[in-house]
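lol forgot to send this yesterday, sorry. struct tokens for the thing we talked abt
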């Protein structure tokens, strides 16, 4: 059976993972299971930067896929980077099977604000859908409300929705040839008109 698998890397609150799994199941209209957590990816730690290289983690994730894996999403609370950026909220294999997100800079506490668990959940879902979108071959979208809009700061994450715009949704279906996903993408409901 086709499923999204969440792999916790290090320590994460179980309720955060449950909420994320539920949100992804709703967005992609398929089962989302939480795998047994694994330890922090110490092999990817950069002592100078005091961060974890997300690309190295993705390489390790790719070796953990199973036949039941439609997509494998690593989820961590560690600070991630790629060499050309100060930080990343996540990274994915474009057109591949694996992606990774981090809650580290999605938390309000990082910015000196009080904790806001509902906002953290919302941000994590947006970034997870975004990175999974990259695994479906999608690039960044110019529609700032589309989940595929780029997010170089948490403010931009807050502006976008957790849904694919019509153009990105159509691109996913076109790439899948109507077979791999069928109708397995949620169509956002329009607000009632007045």
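and heres what i got for the seq, position by position
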């Amino acid at each position: 059976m086709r499923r999204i698998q969440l792999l916790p890397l290090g320590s994460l609150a179980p309720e955060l993972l449950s909420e994320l799994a539920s949100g992804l199941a709703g967005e992609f209209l398929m089962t989302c299971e939480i795998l047994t957590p694994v330890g922090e990816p110490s092999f990817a730690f950069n002592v100078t930067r005091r961060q974890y290289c997300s690309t190295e983690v993705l390489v390790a994730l790719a070796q953990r896929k199973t036949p039941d894996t439609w997509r494998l999403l690593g989820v961590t609370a560690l600070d991630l980077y790629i060499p050309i950026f100060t930080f990343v909220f996540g990274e994915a294999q474009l057109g591949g099977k694996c992606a990774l997100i981090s809650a580290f800079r999605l938390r309000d506490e990082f910015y000196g604000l009080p904790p806001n668990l509902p906002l953290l959940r919302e941000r994590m879902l947006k970034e997870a859908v975004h990175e999974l979108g990259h695994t479906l071959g999608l690039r960044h979208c110019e529609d700032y409300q589309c989940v595929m809009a780029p997010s170089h700061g948490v403010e931009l994450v807050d502006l976008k929705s957790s849904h694919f715009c019509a153009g990105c949704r159509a691109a996913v279906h076109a790439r899948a040839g109507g077979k791999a996903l069928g109708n397995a993408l949620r169509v956002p409901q329009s607000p009632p008109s007045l």
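The chain has a mean pLDDT of 90. anyway ping me if u want another try
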